[in-house]
Write a structure and sequence with these properties.
By secondary structure, this protein is of the alpha+beta class. Helices cover 40% and strands 21% of the residues.
Length: 86
């Protein structure tokens, strides 16, 4: 399943598209994104990095959840320690 979502314009809803294919081969997103120009936020799947090398107008950015998670865990631990009087 390939998942695409646009950056919505002001006061509009985003467009969300689920594009099912029986494989994870790179030709599926390559075909879909062939005329796209901009940044694609993805997980670590290497297909996207391959696409960025092939398509000059495509930039790949990593998923922000992986950067956010350690901070969220830190805040949670600080709150727990504060409640215990540390």
């Amino acid at each position: 399943m390939w998942f695409y979502r646009n950056q919505p314009l002001r006061n509009t809803h985003p467009v969300v598209l689920f594009d099912w294919h029986p494989s994870r081969h790179s030709e599926h997103p390559h075909e879909f994104l062939k005329t796209f120009s901009g940044t694609v936020i993805t997980d670590g799947y290497q297909v996207y990095h391959k696409l960025a090398k092939e398509c000059r107008n495509l930039k790949v950015s990593g998923c922000c959840i992986h950067a956010r998670k350690p901070f969220a865990e830190f805040i949670k631990s600080v709150n727990q320690n504060t409640a215990k009087g540390y």
